[in-house]
Amino acid sequence: MLRKQFNEGWTVSSNAGGSLVEAFLNGKKEEKKVTLPHDAMVEEERTPDTRNGSQTGFYPGGLYHYGKKFFAPKEWENETVILELEGAYMNARVYVNGDYAGGYPHGYSNFYVCLDHFLKYGQENELKVIVNNGMELNSRWYSGSGLYRNVNLLTGKRLHIQTDGLRITTPEIDENTAVVAVETRLVNEEKCNRKICLITEIRDAQGNIAASDTAHATVFGGTEITVRQRMAVVHPLLWDCDTPNLYHCAVRVVQEETVWDEAEDHFGIRKISLDAVNGLRINGREVKLRGSCIHHDNGIIGACTLERAEERRCEIMKEAGFNCIRSSHHPMSRAMLDACDRLGMLVMDELSDMWTRSKNNNDYSMNFQDYWEKDVELLVAKDYNHPSVILYSMGNEIQEAGTAKGAELNRKINEKIKSLDNTRYTTNAINGMLAVMDSMGQIMSDILGKTPEEMMAEAAKAAQQAQNEGQEAEKEGAGQNEGGSDGLNSMMGMMVGPMADAMASHRIMTEKTDEFVDAMDIAGYNYMTGRHEMEHQIRPNRIVLGTETFPADIVRLWSIVKNNKHVIGDMTWTGYDYLGEAGIGIFYYDGTVNFSSHWPDRVAYIGDINLIGYRRPISYLREIVYGLRKNPYIAVERPEHYGEKCGKTPWMWKNNIASWTWKGQEGNPVSIDVYSDADEVELFLNGKSLGRKAAGEGAGFAAAFETAYEPGELKAVSYVDGEISGTHILETAAEEVSLCVEADRRSLKADGADLSFLTVSLRDKDGRENLQAVKEVTVQVEGAGTLQGFGSADPQVLGSYQDTTWKTYDGYVMAAVRAGRRPGAVKVTFTAEGCEPVVVELEVK
User: Fold this and answer.
1) Dihedral Cα 336, 799, 838, 613, nearest 10 deg
2) Residue limits of the Glycoside hydrolase family 2 catalytic domain (predicted)?
3) What CATH number is given to the structural domain containing 500?
4) How many structural domains does the chain have?
5) Tally of CB atoms within 10 A around 266
């Protein structure tokens, strides 16, 4: 079917706190015009008494009414018209001319609604979509609200290719030839029979025909058929992370000279294989997954899923050394999948964060049992042709993992996936603590050598002490998760190191999780590093993946991955910062307790890459551990907090930054780390050596130095076999700074969705960045574009990303400018007190 975006000409109104009846009858109250995708939540006012609390970054939910009027031409009377909503958070209900046409409860699944029985042909029609995110609490992270992904309109004749009915695989590949198997699912809604020919062409990236085929079939009235074609591509260009070669497949349904329907999609020719001896292989070459878990929001533009925003995020993660991303904890957007295909990023796409046991009072567990099969069908249909997708995850930290019924459901979901797609592998991200909760006393008794009674007494004493210390934080945390997931996170924060490893490897853990793990291809373990190596001894054929791990543990984790074939990779939590789950990684120096729903936190603050795309020091350490960076990297702990105690969770690294500009700290002590894979590193301050220390894997890829802050030049030199192998230099910037603006692209498509991200930094006259300086920056956008979002990576700041004035944070602030649908120029002006204005011109064409 012909698919086109249906994003223009919408209106939206909020009925926060009102009823669904009021939304339907009075939905035009305070109506405003929008172009989809549109995130309604990011435009809401954050308040400290928001019931969601830190889970959504203090953003409230709401009830939203979207409307659109459109003309249905007379020729549609003899066609099928289908509406696709790629993502509507949540409980979407679609009405056409006042009549209910369909809907779906899941906030992250794409779904289809047939409009045929509701349209008035040759007339104007009214489309309404009511999206209800008012049932708080329902998400453990920032969900966004409304129609935050594309809405598409699909049209085709009564004989047409089914939605997502073009399926492409590459079952046979050798050095000279690849077989491309194409399945086309046809639907004939007419009464008469149609004898058709199916013309299929495969083209390479330059548009050259690589293979073609014509198949003949009779599609009887009121039936569906599948036409299968096998084509040989000679000298195929294979898809992998380093060379993500794509092909294009186009199919036409023809009867005599009439084209009844057509469909097209891109795909890659690649072969994946998996076993405990060779690990994961792509096209015969072993690949270790350098992975990152990510949430779905795009920072300052919220959950708005614009193609360029997804592509940019994928580009930055690829540059940081990642080769795989896990969509946590829901199906990934089509836009991100397309970006991963183009850029060579592997994907683990995930079904759900919960099954039948809730983590929040109003989460998807209320619907999962009734909808999981349809959810799986939609997930697989969306992902099928994407070469980037190699893994399906059936769930995240599922509480049923330690029960026989949980294992049964895991097996059912696995079988459902395999019935739809047997070309990819399956896993489930298991949190062992949940699986053994009812046996925790016995496990801890075995580990500690104490009786359960002694441990209970000690636990009660510790709990009382924690309650006393965190009393004020508890008062602030009225909006916390009533389902208890933050309590689990807090408990996990204490269960690290040898204790966690002992628990993960305990015999009861094995007994509780074995049946669950046996129902899938790969054992996915969250924070269970103690099992990764031992699995090979107890289950020689089992494959292990660290589906979620602590970022600060990367040195140990990657050593395990490198030295064990059956351990295929590691997925850190998390590679890119995100809204919601606010405060997990914020460094509090005032006694505030992490996970205490602390206002005005809005950002998790635990990403290797911060909210606007700036790589933090741990990102460079990870790149060095991966073996991808040879130059050393200097990270300086903020000297104003030297020696101070702060709250800490195992998701946090260090409160450091790559800067040697610390006005007011002259003569004060400062801690410095130099990250390197070299044998040794030497640190120089203004030409004077501060010593040479061991680095490399044996030293945890880091050497620590202490000195007193002195402005000037800080230089790290790395040595291999006594010879200089690399350098990194930080220089003190002058106090007087100017605005420097870098646009990631100057030319935009006039499609109403393209973006340019403009990053503002503060630099002195010699071009040195001053990350300590703070300026209040104002942006103005004129012409053929609009301001989609503006803000910094500050995890605790007040204000809205719709504001046009923001203070820099660690020297940066960023604007996202969205193209309109008409060609023209966009003038973007940045101003700040004491600085010359900077004007950037963009072209929309």
Assistant:
1) -30
2) 280-458
3) 3.20.20.80
4) 5
5) 17
